[in-house]
Amino acid sequence: TLFRSAAQGVDPGLYSKKLMSGVLEYCAQTPHQDPYFYLYHAWRDCWGMLGSSTALLCSIDEEMTLRVCNVGDSALAVYRGETTVFRTNEQTHGWNFPYQLGYGGDDVASAERLQVRGVEPGDIIVLGSDGVWDNLFNHQIVGAIKKHPSDLQAIANEIAEQAHQIGHDETVASPFAVSSGGRFMGGKLDDVTVIVAEIVVTPPQSIQARL
Questions:
Q1: Which of 43, 81, 133, 186 is paired with 21 by a 20 to 30 Å CA distance?
Q2: 142-189: pLDDT as tens digits
Q3: pLDDT tens digits for 73-102?
Q4: Contact indicator for 57, 112 with CB cutoff of 8 Å
């Protein structure tokens, strides 16, 4: 779908921008909804538009429940110290063939909807596009968190820079290369998007995510 749109002179990135702009608008209009609510309405507003996109949204409520809505091969992980508390699974039709919303893509109803109970203040949440997870193993993410224990921006920068560097390396045994079963060697040069947040509690017991 992305290739076809580009061949027709359409910037496929416009779809993802409109999709996320729609999510933001619905969040402002109707706060405190499940992430799927926002993705569904934003997806519906993009109906018929050329281009496609994966999507990953999350929210946390006052009962310390993390709600996740994911379509495609982006992923979210929760870290508590050096322990990985939770990680989503990528949605793919086959190797290197992720679910996507958009023109000729998958229905929004295919989104994976999850509830993660028991997250705690101090937990670190890392959301990344496939350009992150295809190039970095979990221990490398943990290493970046350990290296910058109180600086979320530095963690995000470290993850993004490592993923970008490995993406250019044609010899490394990256997660993408391992998943190919020997068909591919090296990192995967791809767009890299990463958000790092920390769960904090502020009086009077308001749950927030510090970015």
A1: 133
A2: 999 999 998 999 999 999 999 999 999 999 999 999 999 989 999 999
A3: 999 999 999 999 999 999 999 999 999 999
A4: no
How far is the C-alpha of 126 from the C-alpha of 73, rounded, in Å? 14
Distance CA 90, CA 129 (A): 10
Would you state the structure tokens that stand for residue 93, as one six-digit string? 């039709």
**Residue burial 141-178, b: 16+ Cβ < 10 Å; e: rest:** bbbbbeebeeebeebbebbbebbbebbeeeebebbbbe
DSSP assigned state of 106: B
- Token pair for residue 135? 């190039």
Please give the Cα distance from 184 to 3 (Å, whole number).
21
Q: What are the structure tokens assigned to 162, written together?
A: 């490592």
Helix residue spans in the chain (DSSP H): 2-7, 13-29, 35-45, 130-133, 138-147, 152-167, 175-179
For 180, the token pair is 């190919």
Which of 204, 32, 196, 200 lies closest to 119 in space, CA to CA?
200
How far is 100 from 88, CA to CA, in rounded Å? 16
Backbone angles phi, psi at 85, to 5 degrees: -75, -35
